[in-house]
Design brief:
Structural class: alpha+beta
Largest sheet: 7 strands, mixed
Helix content: 10-25%
Strand content: 25-35%
Order of helices and strands: EHEEEEHEEEEHHHEEEEE
Distance between the termini: 42 Å
Radius of gyration: 18 Å
Length: 249
């Protein structure tokens, strides 16, 4: 069951207060939304979608739990792929996933993902928060994008979010976690196909280098000089423009 709220402080906290039968909480006005590392997610009325969802983790092993953020990114991307757009041209690389938890459009942040583990009774659960900018507004920080740039504002305003679109997003999120449980490599390949173009300049793990995808554990691979490191956590900053896509492979 998805519960819709007219407004709330935080969908993460609202879902945590709900019984386990509530699979998600959604709103179009969130007053105290949060992102990673305590950052605030700005959500004035009708300008963004805030959704918190209980990830189905029963089939995941402990080492797969950190990959829920990547799975959620795949589900979110696939949801946007299914929306009606003015052009049928490929979205990637204009739309791409940035490790570990952002969705970018033309190098600007369109959506963010926050995973929080909690203990309920005698079992653990993971609540995943997603914030999607629907339209640009003055309170957005620099470097943000909005869904209105991918689909026309008229089409977006006509989206039946409550009845059709958000339930479809929850289905995509659940399906992505199921694919993670069934075959981690398949899920990581899906994420990589929608990720930043290889060769994009990044700052990650205290180093500046070029993006080389993710490894079999889902860690970011970064080339700097003749060395390659893997980054398992921390901030990742995009430096300059996206690398041009490589269509030779």
């Amino acid at each position: 069951m998805i519960r819709w709220l007219t407004r709330c402080e935080s969908t993460q906290d609202a879902l945590n207060a709900e019984p386990p039968t509530t699979s998600a909480v959604a709103t179009l006005e969130q007053t105290q939304g949060r992102g990673r590392r305590g950052r605030r997610w700005v959500s004035p009325a009708q300008t963004s979608l805030a959704l918190s969802w209980r990830a189905p983790i029963d089939r995941l092993c402990a080492e797969e739990l950190p990959l829920i953020s990547l799975a959620a990114g795949v589900g979110l991307y696939r949801w946007i792929e299914g929306l009606e757009r003015p052009s049928d041209s490929p979205l990637h690389p204009r739309l791409c996933l940035k490790w570990p938890n952002d969705l970018l459009f033309e190098g600007r942040k369109l959506a963010g993902i926050l995973c929080e583990g909690r203990v309920r009774g005698d079992h653990q659960e993971v609540i995943v928060g997603l914030g999607v900018n629907l339209s640009l507004h003055q309170q957005l920080p620099p470097g943000c994008a909005a869904l209105d740039e991918l689909i026309s504002p008229e089409s977006r305003s006509a989206l039946p979010l409550r009845e059709v679109s958000v339930p479809a997003l929850v289905v995509e999120l659940n399906d992505a976690v199921e694919r993670l449980a069934e075959n981690r490599a398949t899920l990581l390949a899906e994420w990589s196909a929608r990720g930043l173009p290889l060769g994009t300049s990044l700052r990650a793990g205290g180093r500046v280098g070029v993006y080389q995808g993710v490894d079999e554990r889902g860690a970011l691979r970064l080339n700097h000089g003749e060395e390659q490191t893997t980054v398992e956590s921390g901030e990742v900053e995009l430096l300059g423009s996206l690398a041009p896509p490589d269509y030779s492979s």
